[in-house]
Amino acid sequence: MYTTYAKGNRTLLGMDFLQKAGIVLNLQHNNWFFSDSLQRMYDFAKEVIVQEVQSRPNIEENTCLLRDDDAKCLTPEQRNEPSTLLKMYETALEPGGEPIPFMEHRINTGDSPPVSVPPYRLPTAKKELLKKELIHAI
Predict the structure, then answer these.
(1) pTM tops 0.85, yes or no
(2) CB 136 within 8 A of CB 5
(3) How many CB atoms lie within 10 A of CB 106?
(4) Three-state secondary structure along 65-88?
């Protein structure tokens, strides 16, 4: 779902956002509504204004070397040291290849909680504020 009048039209609402906000999409009737207020429905926009997306600039073929604007405070000899080292070990640093059988890496997280957490419901006050912001955005 995408908000019509969002600045620059770059707002894209994902499934996790729609679920947390209680937004229900009725594709058969081309509208949407909040799950706790079925009487107020909003129509989908018939036409979407698509803006041209700027393409990414070309990435240099060899990204292992310092660019001209990198490390300006270094002497020419110091600037060449990393490049020389990278060229010397170029075959060892190439992508791909088989995993090393005698080495295993681990990250000790101790008693830290997991990084991934299950989704949670929005508090009523935040849900009401979100509704007002969405209605204002439309």
Answers:
(1) no
(2) no
(3) 5
(4) CCCCCCCCCCCHHHHHHHHHHHHH
